[in-house]
Amino acid sequence: MKIMTSGNTTAFQVSSVSSCQLSPQKDLLPWISDNILAIILPTVVYTIAGGFFHVLDRYELFSNYRIHPSEDELKRNHITRWECFKGVVRYHIIQITIGLLLQWNAGLQMVSDEACQIHETARKLNHARKIIPTSLNLIGIDAKKLSRAVAGTSSKLAYTIAGDYTTIDRSNSIDDGLLTLSKLCVTVLTPILQFLLALVVVDTYFYFTHRLCHVNRTLYRIVHAQHHRIYVSYAYGAVYAHWLETLFLDILSFVLAGKIAQLSPRQSMLFGSAATIKTIGDHCGYVFPWDPLRWLNGNGARFHDLHHQSWGLKYNFSTYTVFWDNLLGTTWADKEGAEKRYQRVRDLTSKKPLEKEATGNRGLERMVAEGGTIKAE
Predict the structure, then answer these.
(1) CB distance 30 to 138 below 8 Å
(2) Helices 131-138/155-162 angle, 10° precision
(3) Distance between CA atoms of 178 and 164, rounded to whole angstroms?
(4) Which of 276, 277, 299, 275 lies closest to 287 in space, CA to CA?
(5) 218-269, pLDDT tens digit by residue?
(6) How many CA atoms are closer than 13 Å to the CA of 301, on its beta-carbon side?
(7) Is 151 exposed, middle or buried (0-12, 13-18, 19+ CB in 10 A)?
(8) Assign residue 84 a region: left if phi > 0, alpha if psi is -120 to 50, beta otherwise?
(9) Whole-angstrom Cα distance, residue 26 to residue 203?
(10) Of 308, 371, 337, residue with least CA distance to 67
(11) Are 237 and 217 in contact (CB under 8 A)?
(12) Three-class SS string for 223-279?
């Protein structure tokens, strides 16, 4: 492979390709770079989504879909909305600041021509076909015999199965079918795999660090308990947390995911925005029948709200999937028991006088979790 540089452009020559050039990618918006937009966009999405649900809360719209009665917020939560708002603003300041520091002196996003990427992928796939006859022989299939059987249908398929690559590559060209497959890989399959890998990294990292914060009493008391001062969740309080949790649970998980999955700035925009919407949805306090995430894997607002109850703190640690909770037995499976506890909460809360500010009642939460006829298992 021959590499050439000229100004801000890098070119390299490969077999069957005259030149592939790396050049700066044009930003989506002319007044802000993609790198900066990827940092700011999740905060913009958070503001819009959080504001939307705040309007629902404020005007009691769709109240029939609420998990908790609206007045329970003032009776059970241990912080006011104003305190929560200040904590959320601090979270986003930290997030944006860290993002800007990580992008300090970052170069332009360099990309090659899509046609070049497709041809390069096709060339790699063409070489990868050499494992086909070996693989067939390993599982007891005679590759040459199978090749003769399909020769009348497709000579190229027969050559591939038999491993006759001198015949296939005689023209030193790549067939249209392989180019089509390569285009699918470059434009669809590779980005999907990158997103799935990023999801695996974030979901795994968050599950185990989140669970550690509940298992280790010191971590819970000093760090994670701040997030659990909210028993009746609302959307814009989703990221209300101690600053150490902001750094080491939230921000670090996404930095690792972006690096491991090699997400581009534009992919980071989509991934970060989707994760923000999911987090807002988990804490919104509404269970809508048309919520797609609820039907996708069962990890939605109801799933996470149970974790915010005093009797559910050791269950439902996951945020994006239910894989680790199901695998390690931390999914709350007793739906009937959960409904009894929710009803117990409603009965006890209804007897508590409504206050102007959310101050909470730790005695009430302890009673629900440990007392009476309903004991946490």
Answers:
(1) no
(2) 70
(3) 17
(4) 299
(5) 999 999 999 999 999 999 999 999 999 999 999 999 999 999 999 999 999 9
(6) 22
(7) middle
(8) alpha
(9) 32
(10) 308
(11) no
(12) CHHHHHHCCCCCHHHCCCCCHHHHHHHHHHHHHHHHHHCCCCHHHHHHHHHHHHHHH
Report yes or no: 239 and 91 within 8 Å, Cβ to Cβ.
yes
Stated pTM of the model: 0.81
Over residues 300-325, mean pLDDT = 93
* Cα–Cα distance, 195 to 253 (Å, whole number): 14
Residue type, 335: K
* Unique residue bearing structure tokens 């007891």: 140
- Cα–Cα distance list, 287 to 62, 237, 299, 301 (Å): 10, 17, 11, 6
Q: From CA 207, how far away is CA 321, in angstroms rounded? A: 10
pLDDT top residue among 160 and 355: 160
Instruction: Determine contact, residues 223/242, Cβ cutoff 8 Å.
Output: yes
